[in-house]
């Protein structure tokens, strides 16, 4: 906060060992992140680049990037997926709450990570519980631990362990992709993101590219989504009047749905006016720009 007061919401620093533009302004960050990589050329820490790979949607540019982004975005906005996510979210939350103990603390961020990962993996590759999901989660935890590690790749380093974990994840997901190709019908409806990408006829969408990007799409379930859920609960807890209104609104909907004998739907959630009220939360987004490296020293 002191830095923002002194230098403003957008300032130059030297994070990651080179000139970096730091943006804490929501509108500026939105423009940067939604650009076509021509105005702002993305550049990332070396360890992250090695882990993401050359096929990552974070790295590729041009028509292929737009094609992948368009395919994924279109499916994620579909009514079918929204209905599935609503059902899955309720299921996984109920399963998680069943394991809570009245005499033990509940670590919200850990619980949110567990739930968000299950929802994401189900939407991405239709994997729903079982040993295969647990194995994938184990490899994913090792993989993500190296995203901001020191860029040293040899046995014993975190980056090396993370790269090995990613290879194991790619192997698991590649098996799922091959199974989908064996049963896929061109006129069949896509059940997950993997189906959408497998269905595309572009020769550029190789199995390795699909697998690597599916792994990349799991990352929000580890970081941004659980953090936002934790902050939402924290700030609601700090404001009893807001928590009371939030609780009353949701319980009222619950009573109505139980009376009608209907499950909660995505549109029901959107109808909660207080719950949907937008609250501005300051997110410090670090955007590492290649062009910033050419700036003269102050």
From TrEMBL:
<dbReference type="GO" id="GO:0016132">
    <property type="term" value="P:brassinosteroid biosynthetic process"/>
</dbReference>
<keyword id="KW-0479">Metal-binding</keyword>
<protein>
    <submittedName>
        <fullName>3-epi-6-deoxocathasterone 23-monooxygenase CYP90D1</fullName>
    </submittedName>
</protein>
<dbReference type="GO" id="GO:0010268">
    <property type="term" value="P:brassinosteroid homeostasis"/>
</dbReference>
<dbReference type="GO" id="GO:0016125">
    <property type="term" value="P:sterol metabolic process"/>
</dbReference>
<dbReference type="InterPro" id="IPR036396">
    <property type="entry name" value="Cyt_P450_sf"/>
</dbReference>
<dbReference type="Pfam" id="PF00067">
    <property type="entry name" value="p450"/>
</dbReference>
<keyword id="KW-0408">Iron</keyword>
<dbReference type="GO" id="GO:0020037">
    <property type="term" value="F:heme binding"/>
</dbReference>
<dbReference type="GO" id="GO:0005506">
    <property type="term" value="F:iron ion binding"/>
</dbReference>
<dbReference type="GO" id="GO:0016709">
    <property type="term" value="F:oxidoreductase activity, acting on paired donors, with incorporation or reduction of molecular oxygen, NAD(P)H as one donor, and incorporation of one atom of oxygen"/>
</dbReference>
<dbReference type="InterPro" id="IPR001128">
    <property type="entry name" value="Cyt_P450"/>
</dbReference>
């Amino acid at each position: 906060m002191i830095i923002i007061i002194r230098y403003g919401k957008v300032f130059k620093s030297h994070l990651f060992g080179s000139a970096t533009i730091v943006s804490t302004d929501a509108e500026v960050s939105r423009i940067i992140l939604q650009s076509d990589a021509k105005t702002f050329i993305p550049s990332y820490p070396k360890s992250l680049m090695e882990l993401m790979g050359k096929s990552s949607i974070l790295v590729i540019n041009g028509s292929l990037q737009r094609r992948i982004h368009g395919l994924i975005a279109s499916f994620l906005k579909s009514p079918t997926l929204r209905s599935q996510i609503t059902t899955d979210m309720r299921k996984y939350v109920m399963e998680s709450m069943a394991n809570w103990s009245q005499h033990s603390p509940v670590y919200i961020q850990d619980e949110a990570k567990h739930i968000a990962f299950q929802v994401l993996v189900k939407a991405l590759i239709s994997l729903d519980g079982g040993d295969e999901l647990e194995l994938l989660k184990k490899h994913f935890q090792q993989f993500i631990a190296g995203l901001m590690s020191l860029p040293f790749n040899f046995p014993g380093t975190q980056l090396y362990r993370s790269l090995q974990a990613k290879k194991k994840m790619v192997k698991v997901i590649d098996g799922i992709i091959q199974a989908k190709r064996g049963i896929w019908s061109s006129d069949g409806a896509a059940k997950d993101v993997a189906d959408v990408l497998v269905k595309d006829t572009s020769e550029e969408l190789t199995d390795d590219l699909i697998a690597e990007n599916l792994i990349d799409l799991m990352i929000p379930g580890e970081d941004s989504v659980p953090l936002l859920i934790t902050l939402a609960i924290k700030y609601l807890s700090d404001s009893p009047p807001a928590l009371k209104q939030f609780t009353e609104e949701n319980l009222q909907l619950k009573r109505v749905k139980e009376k009608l004998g209907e499950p909660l739907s995505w549109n029901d959630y959107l109808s909660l006016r207080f719950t949907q009220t937008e609250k501005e939360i300051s997110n410090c987004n670090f955007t590492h720009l290649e062009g910033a490296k050419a700036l003269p020293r102050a």
